[in-house]
Design a protein that fits this description.
Order of helices and strands of chain B: HHHHHHHHHHHHH
Structural class of chain A: mainly alpha
Oligomer: heterodimer
Number of helices of chain B: 13
Largest sheet of chain A: none
Radius of gyration of chain B: 20 Å
Number of helices of chain A: 12
Order of helices and strands of chain A: HHHHHHHHHHHH
Number of strands of chain A: 0
Shape of chain B: globular
Number of domains of chain B: 1
Number of strands of chain B: 0
Number of domains of chain A: 1
Distance between the termini of chain A: 33 Å
Helix content of chain A: over 70%
Structural class of chain B: mainly alpha
Strand content of chain B: under 5%
Chain lengths: ~270, ~300
């Protein structure tokens, strides 16, 4: 019963995002353009240092295109449901949401998974396809790898959702969560491996980045598709993502509880 | 413009009270009026942003850090190699600083114009059009965000660091090229913002396409032209005039060979390119505004 409810929330969100065709095309176009720009810079770097970080030049370029495919889906930068939830917190409408016989966090998570599914299809597949036509990409042949990647991407979205949810909840105290959102977004972009594979980060910074939740958003799914994590390492990578998802969703619930108990809702 | 200071007595919206009557006719008068409208609208939005002071401070810091991350990535790349496309770190920092400064100033001054599609969709562009003030000036300053000053500040710091470490024979023409790059680069990026947002007159949802030339362009110009395919570099000279922001003048400042082997004059042609870009953007804006039909709400 409940599952069908959240299922229909996810489906509705998928369909809703599918209606913005021009925006989706524009986004995929931009992802593709950035894919080309960044591929050239990576090729220059790997031309100077072949095999850097354990990536061949081919794998490095593939890393760029997977990153561009995941950019909108995983929403490391922030976005998705956040504008809507923050507006409801600011206006006080969230009080109505809390009265509903559904769980607030699960409701928004279902919606965000629906959004992510659409964006992986539309804004993920298109740039990856263009990239594969323009460059020799190191994409896997085994169906299991693709299945593991999809699972890893779903976990990545869940971890990202949990972080974004926490960020938006700060609006209960700050009224305007955009400042926190900007800071967390930047931290996330850098530490997720979206800008540069974490293997290229120096010593302690790299070690820290690899265990922080942001690496579960981009670095891990990229490495899964590049077959850098197989067998036991693959299971550990997925477990790492799952652990952060559970921890951060739990933190979100705790903060949500504190917010609803202690904060007087805006709008009276 | 100095008579319109921030203060409790300033008008809430341009044309709503305190502003002088809009002049009709001559271009200089209209330009001055447009600048005044821009200033008043920007001041209004700045006061409004100050209502959420924590958020403003965090977002300004965030803006500084966000653009700073780009440079950290470049610095991390240079931990693994001494040169990228034959250019050293200080030279790339020079490109980074000049591109970021121009892009950041343009974003600060007119970047808000990318909300045009949203206004068209909601029907609120009509409100802009009935005010006795130039629509372009109003839209450029709409939701003006002072926090965007983070990018030009951070880019200037990187540029200063680059200039301190570069071994350049500072002849007068090289010195002169620096302010020329900043001004012309800003004009070129501002023109791209305006021209790109004009697309939204015809496709209101397609705001993100313009990011390709603005944010994408800024990313492109952070790296040496030698990194990219010759066709792409040629496209930034003869198509979207990004190369005039910093690539071409930087070749002269840094004494680098031109990968496209263009005539020397191209390295000094930024003012002409900026003028052309601004004129083209202005014409596009007029065409877009003329073809605009309200949503009927």
């Amino acid at each position: 019963m409940l599952l069908t409810l959240y299922g229909s929330v996810a489906r509705g969100s998928f369909r809703r995002h599918a209606t913005y065709r021009a925006a989706t095309f524009a986004g995929a176009f931009t992802n593709t353009a950035f894919g080309f720009i960044l591929s050239s810079t990576y090729l220059a770097l790997w031309h100077a240092r072949p095999g850097l970080g354990g990536y061949s030049a081919e794998a490095a370029v593939t890393y760029i295109w997977i990153g561009q495919a995941l950019l909108a889906t995983v929403a490391v930068w922030g976005g998705g449901f956040q504008d809507e939830l923050q507006a409801r917190i600011r206006s006080g409408d969230v009080a109505v949401d809390l009265y509903r016989p559904v769980d607030l966090q699960a409701w928004w998570l279902a919606g965000d998974l629906g959004r992510a599914a659409f964006q992986l299809l539309a804004r993920g597949a298109a740039p990856l396809l263009v990239g594969a036509l323009a460059y020799r990409l190191r994409l896997p042949h085994a169906a299991e790898t693709w299945a593991a990647f999809l699972l890893s991407a779903a976990l990545a979205v869940t971890v990202s959702f949990a972080v974004r949810y926490l960020v938006s909840l700060t609006g209960f105290w700050l009224l305007d969560a955009d400042g926190v959102r900007a800071l967390v977004g930047i931290t996330g972009m850098f530490l997720s491996g979206m800008l540069l594979p974490l293997a290229l980060f120096p010593g302690a910074l790299g070690a820290a980045a690899r265990v922080l939740p942001w690496s579960a958003m981009v670095q891990v799914p990229c490495d899964v598709l590049l077959e850098r994590r197989t067998g036991g390492a693959l299971a550990r990578a997925l477990g790492f993502q799952l652990l952060w998802a559970v921890l951060l969703l739990g933190a979100g619930r705790a903060v949500q509880g504190a917010a609803t108990r202690r904060v007087v809702v805006q709008g009276g | 413009m100095a008579d319109v200071e921030d203060g409790p007595g300033s008008p809430a919206a341009p044309g709503a009270g305190g502003g002088s009557a809009p002049p009709v006719g001559r271009l200089p008068g209209r330009t001055a009026w447009g600048l005044r409208v821009w200033w008043m609208t920007a001041a209004m939005w700045t006061r409004s942003a100050m209502a959420y002071r924590t958020s403003f401070v965090l977002m300004t810091v965030g803006n500084l850090a966000a653009t700073g991350m780009d440079f950290v990535v470049i610095a991390l790349m240079f931990r693994h190699t001494g040169s990228l496309g034959g250019w050293g770190l200080r030279e790339v920092a020079f490109l980074y600083g000049t591109a970021g400064l121009a892009m950041g100033l343009a974003d600060l001054l007119v970047g808000s114009i990318d909300k045009l599609g949203e206004r068209i969709r909601l029907g609120t562009l009509d409100v802009v059009l009935v005010r006795p003030a130039p629509a372009l000036a109003q839209m450029a300053a709409d939701r003006f965000a002072l926090r965007r000053i983070g990018r030009p500040l951070q880019a200037s710091a990187v540029l200063a660091w680059a200039l301190a470490g570069l071994h350049v024979d500072w002849t007068w023409d090289r010195v002169l090229l620096l302010p020329v790059m900043a001004v012309c680069g800003t004009v070129i990026f501002a023109s791209l913002f305006v021209a790109g947002s004009c697309l939204q007159f015809w496709a209101a949802d397609a705001a993100e396409v313009q990011n390709t030339v603005t944010y994408g362009g800024a990313t492109l110009l952070q790296y040496p032209p030698t990194v990219f395919a010759r066709e792409l570099v040629a496209g930034t000279v003869f198509g979207v005039p990004l190369a005039f922001v910093n690539w071409l003048p930087a070749l002269h400042v840094l004494g680098r060979p031109d990968p496209l082997h263009l005539p020397e004059a191209f390295r000094f042609a930024s003012p002409a390119a900026a003028a052309l870009a601004a004129a083209a953007a202005g014409l596009l804006w007029r065409a877009g505004l003329r073809s605009y039909r309200g949503t009927g709400s």
